Amino acid sequence: MSEKKAVLCRNVKIGGGAPVSIQSMTNTPTADVKATMEQIRRLEEAGCQIVRMAVPDMEAARALYDIRKQTDLPLVADIHFDHRLALEAIRAGMDKIRINPGNIGSQDKVKEVVDLAKEYRIPIRVGVNSGSLEKDILQKYGKVTAEGLAESALRNVALLEKYDFDDIVISLKSSDVKMNYEAYKIVNDRSDYPLHIGVTEAGTPSRGKIKSAAGVGALLLEDIGDTMRISLTADPVEEVLFAKELLAALGIRKDAIEIVSCPTCGRTEVDLEKIAESIERRIHEVTEKGVCGIKIAVMGCAVNGPGEARGADLGVACGKGKGVIFSGGEILKTVPEEKIADEIIKLAGEYDKNTGEF
Ligand code: SF4
Predict the structure, then answer these.
(1) Which residues bind [4Fe-4S] cluster (predicted)?
(2) What's this model's pTM, rounded to 2 decimal places?
(3) Which of 24, 223, 292, 330 is deepest in the core (most CB within 10 A)?
């Protein structure tokens, strides 16, 4: 967790040493309140902490009043070009707005938005994107560059600071993983505002998860980033589930269940892929019982298996047609291959965090 300035988005603290929060964005028409609310509820159930909605027109802005009444989840309105939409979104009770002050229009319009955000005590995210860099910056650098993105973000921040506003979160996303990483590094060094990180337009789940793991993961490992969104061309719930997995894999999120499984080799004598997949697929049965923060190891043989399995809270080292289940370094039982996944799910669900026993 980085030590940036703290900003509050309803009840979620961004920066100031707070854990990295997970956000996503609805892909229903915002004016369709019913469909949008259904998606917000699914996102919340999946563990989304902040939900953003596109506000392309006044009909969408007005729908925000209804949406606000139906959820307490922190809500963010995403606005481009029309400052009146930003004003309406703030009045509708949004907890943060995302704008580019540079494309909102005249200084007076920016000031109007800033003044209302101050009155309602909500933060503004300055969201710069590689697809919308200012012309003069493009000319200066000849093309989109990390330096250019950083310059644009800091310039947009200055437009808000000019009106004595510092309740700011910054994002400066690119779909180019390396440029994205370098741009965030520059702004992280030059600014004290919390950072919303992500790789934009990362793509379909198979490609997008790789790009996001590389881009967002690299930043998080350097303690850069205070809130994150994984962008996938998919159901937004998938963004949240992957964000949770990524934070768990990086050891940042302590409330997730970490599952490690060996890559298998010529020594494997069970269908380990099937066992590991079955455990992963059913792990929600364990989390639904309130169990979290444990490590499960699924290992294919008696060579490296027992060591890794012993080091986990719950582990299995497989032999020919069977699995030896360990907990806290002790052998619990031996079960036939076809019962391994069932037994791991059952035992994990019985974990008592006070005693550390299954
Ligand atoms: Fe092979 Fe055993 Fe290592 Fe799995 S744990 S990769 S089966 S040596």
Answers:
(1) 262, 265, 301, 308
(2) 0.85
(3) 24
